[in-house]
Queue: 4 jobs
Job 1
Amino acid sequence: MKIMISTPWFEPASLAGGPVRSISNMIRELSGKFRFDVFCGAKDVDGRPLEIAATDQWLDYGKDCEVFYSLNKPVVHFKKSLSTRENGCIYIVGIFSWRFTLMPLFFNSGKRVIISPRGMLHPPALAQKPFKKKVYLFLLKPFLKWKKVSFHATDAAEAEYIRRYAGADSKLFIVPNFPEIFDLMPVRKEMGKLNLVTIALIGPMKNHLLVLKALRQCKGVIDYVICGPVYVKDYWRQCEELIGELPSNIKVRYAGVVPSDQVKNILKSAHVFICPSKSENYGHAIIEALSAGKPVITSHNTPWQRLEENKAGINSETNKDALAHAIDYFAGMDDTAYSEWIKGAGDYARRQVDADSIRKEYEKMFVGEKSD
């Protein structure tokens, strides 16, 4: 069976964050069982052209997958692809795109459609540009009443947000993402010192500025590495100003954009991963860090809960005092105490991920066996 994926951004786009990783991992895990056509844009979120072999034609992308990077005449190319590519199902990634959400719904002529909002219906996400989004969602809603439209939520919380919008009777599949699971990467820990890392898009949703404000209060010697593309430039300028005002016990370094195959190298020397997100639909970087044995300081707004009782990290309140306390808590550990948290983080990640079970749930979703 072949699936057509409609998404605004796909590899090598780097600014769209988790959804790109999610779709790439899904294709990797399900190749052999399904084939995929990815119809996507040819530019990154900031409008920069992607470094790709060609646009407006189908290109091979590994095993069982082809990609169409649309630049010109997207309507013409999409309609042609629908009629000639013989896909059994259309899988729409995201929700706020006329080209990649509305267009597939409008031109579809009888195929099953699965919409995966990827956290875009979470309240903190809807709070960004709310009027524009309310108008768009009002216009979109009639298309969702078609009997062959269903939704994909990655957890129960997202399922609830989808039902608030689409209705309690909406057809819905709850299937988690495929993360990448790393081997444990133990690193020695000296009492009073901490290597801290964040790998995330740099913008208000990830709360980098709050972390920097918390670091001003920390007693330990902290080496903090920030990785990821700058998504909101004004926000990053505020971060840079604060970095320049930090006390001498705090060192902060911006390491830029980290390709997915280099994430392991960044995590190797880290003691703790920090990302107290305002809203997180999944958080690939969080589960990857946990799998590597890196305890995580995050908020209560992610799927990764009950971290402290599992010695896997801390779900902190999103204020500078609470974050400073969490950072100093790890900074104060010696190597013996910290070693228990390496194991706790790794064990927690592996309990959360059952790749075989996830694979079976995706298979059910795509063949349409049953929805919640």
Job 2
Amino acid sequence: MESCVLVKFGEMALKGRNRKLFVAQLKRNLRRAVGPDAELRTRAGAIAVLAPMDGEELVARAREVIGISVVHPALIVDKSAQAAAATAVDVLRVREAKTFAIRARRRDKSFPLSSRELAIVAGQAVVDELGLKVNLDAPDAEVHLEVDEREIFAYTDKLRARGGLPVGISGRAVVLLSGGIDSPVAAYRAMRRGLRCDFVHFSGEPYTGPESIYKAYAHVRVLDRFQGESQLWIVPFGQAQRALASAGAGRLQVMAQRRLMVRVGAALADREGAAALVTGDSLGQVASQTLPNMAAVEEASPLPLLRPLVTYDKAEVIEEARELGTLEISHLPDEDCCKLFASKFAETRADPGALRRLEQLTDAEEVVERLLAAARLVRPGDDEPAYEPRAPALRHSAAAVE
């Protein structure tokens, strides 16, 4: 017998003729997470991972790979009913259980026993050797036996993983990253749809301190564990904000800033080969995120503007930020650049025509070029990411977690 981690796909299992592309991307991401010395054995709807590391750490790393739905710490058993039965006995011998069930599945239909027959053989061995009672409805312990093309996998635990699509399979995007709660969660949600993300943060320099930059760095550092080699661009935005205020932006100040951020983000995305922008907008959450204001911002973007959190309420976003490990970072104090020079009166229905006239006064295209030239690149993921073993249960329902 060999120990392994058996990882299974979720949504990927529904893919058709291009499924091989998804599996290949997942294997690249999985190898990055578990190390170059790992052996990956591809099976129908699953990958067996063997790596020279502690089993608990291997499980923790596998569970963090987006695209994997379920993780089983498993044993690889010779492809015979006798070996499977002996393994079931060994597994249950160390469990404190009075009742048990064998759940067998035969993916290889050439195996001489049906799934039911294999379960009976293994179950009888457990009864004979250990004297446990069979309970198929509510057993104290379950042993799963999966007959594959070359071996049988035996396991007892079913651990939820991240799910989604492998990072990178859907292309590349640039995330407009603030110091708040929403945008890191939006980035994670974009990653779960297969997007590889770069990040841009607009600081209020020279009118604010470096605190928001530190927070953006820390956020990307946390999110980097899902993709590796993340890039964070820091754009000093204070002078541009002052120019808008001096041009008489008034109540349009925040909306003009957001349109300018989108323009800079799109120019950066075009330069870096990304095809979309991602923001943390949630419909109606604040005055700048009303439907008319969202439309006014989107008008300024030459690229698709993706809003993964558009229908989420704040409690859902906070819960996911807590699970990701970004919530505490978001709560650190900083000076929000969006509040610089902003009017105390909120504009909920910004006039796109007025915004365009303001941009003509300030020569928005020239400002974008200047800000793009001033952008500084940092790589928060250069260090080896830390993997912390997590509790077996990982919530991932759309209603409760997103």
Job 3
Amino acid sequence: MRIPDRVLVVGLGETGLAVARFLHSMGRQIGLADEKAEKDLMPVLTQLNGIPFTGHFGPHSIRDFLMYPMIILSPGVDSELPVLKEAKSHGIAIIGEIELASAFIQEPIIAITGTNGKTTTTTLIGEIFTRAFRDVFIGGNIGNPLINYVIGEKRARYIVIEISSFQLETIKQFKPNLAVLLNISEDHLDRYRSYEDYTHAKYRIFENQTPDDYAVINNNLLLSHTIHARLFRFSTDTGLQEGAFLKNGLMHVRLRDKEYTYARSRSPLVGIHNTENILAALLVCHLYNVEHTIVEDVLHTFTGLPHRVEPVRTLRGVTFYNDSKATNVDATRRALESITGHVILIAGGRDKGGSYKILVDSMKKVKALILIGEAKERIQNELGEYTDTYIEHDLTDAVMRAWHLSKAGDVILFSPMCSSFDMFRDYKHRGETFKTIVESL
């Protein structure tokens, strides 16, 4: 990839800063644009450690954007912004960090996407690969930008990355050697014009693959887009001639006339959604000939990640779970499926545009629904008739209400099904706040 002398980086999150460092190492003149005011960005800008740049802060101006022949977007920046459309009409190249980084990488890339389960699956594959091959880079949307691998001196045998739909919007030549699509359900409809547009963005992960590459996909997904790679499926409800599937408590992997089995009960990860994540990971690992014993050892000890149906404590017979990572309705549905007993559900946050009605069948086990945040009235309108429903001012009040309603044997589940940005910095801040409140009871 040819990088021009002047490049504009839009969005100053962790990815934007990493891109700026890379461009500086390449001797390029850097522009930085962000809709926040410069004074609000000072804690971020100090992390550049004296790297020279031209700042374009506050409301975006097309005049600023036209100063650069290339624009690189951070994942959180909407590629459909009018200023970006106009810049593109003037012939300015607009790409994302994934496209930039992958152009400088020769090693095999394993990329994982899906509405839910991306981080768990990426981390599980990464841990197994690290045990098997030692030198593995794990990153992408998981919190370690791919461009950091390009900047770093250490080389890896394999690169395992999580990819979001936002990152896939701006690819052109990006081609993973193996691409995984875990699932698709309504999400980010506050950004996409339709569910079809969101689905199209997800399927772009396969767009540039060839018959020499691998595609791993959930058997429940229809192939709405052409896939040129060698296709393998995983399923929790159907036996497969080739692929990975669950049958009678055993997870099977059938490949190249060989079959491997793993006891589902030996994994600490709970829920059918995690069974899907594990099956996808098993399939990936055996496509790369990881030894069965290595896979088994990691699988039996991998306890998952924080904020994903995470047990917090049991108090007077009531168990609390932190599922703050549930930023869409399907994630909450999956969490409810994985829990037995009566549930008091705490939910709410910033609405993302999807329907809450898909939770109707799951509401049978919800003893009470406690709502907070900007979306509380909308959730109440769609689900309030199915159980006792309460609206509270903040998360502290919600936890206290749930605690007073509970009795021994109940489960209090914090699974917001919304984004966190109305009240918290991110889902991690939200989850840690919940845990602090619960620990103080």
Job 4
Amino acid sequence: MAYIGRQLDAGNYLKLDDISSQFNGSTVRFNLTSGGNPYYPGSPFSILVSLGGVIQEPSSAYEIDENQIIFAAAPQSTDDFFCISLGVALGVGVPADGSVTFAKLAPSARGVGIQSGGVNIGVGVTQLNFIGFGNTFAYNSSTNSIDVSISGNAGAGGTFSANAVGVHTTKILGINTTTIAGAANSEGAIQAVGNIALVDGAILTDQNIDSNLFIPSGKNGLVIGPVTVGLGITIDVATGSVLVVV
């Protein structure tokens, strides 16, 4: 006959020891054992009891007190007995440290996911650290995201040392430069060392050259004169290059 009712989630069927040898027509309380050891059913409904070939009704024909069964009517000496436990409780141990993998956690328990351009960053990241003054972040409940605000002192190459440092103009400004490598006079589409100003149609430069000037090979230089070269300052023009003073 198939099992009737809610299926067992854990444990296994277990046949308890036969106690029919103790039946005498007057005793109603008996110890339940399994393999000679005391057995403690969870409730009257966790065992199936047959007495004299008749299945007994839990809480009506018998009750459970710790490891004892108490019959409503004393079994007769001629009655046979069997009892089946309908599930043995299994103890769930505490997982060892570091034994639970990320895949076993529910999405809501996995913490903050960090991505850059849709690509996951880092494994097991547990902390976000925003470096620099003026950086703030706030949780946006409408989008379920973290909004990061970076102060105006920061630029693409790092953080400026003061608000007065950087690019400031009321005119349209276009800058196209490759990564700076080496000296400022060697690479890049636009690089500046010293004071240079573009004011509408005029280029303004210093009248003093106070740092060594080198025109590398394959480059031409332009100086707007007159200029004064500082004491100990050298102007070096590579072979094949040209320095023009206008």
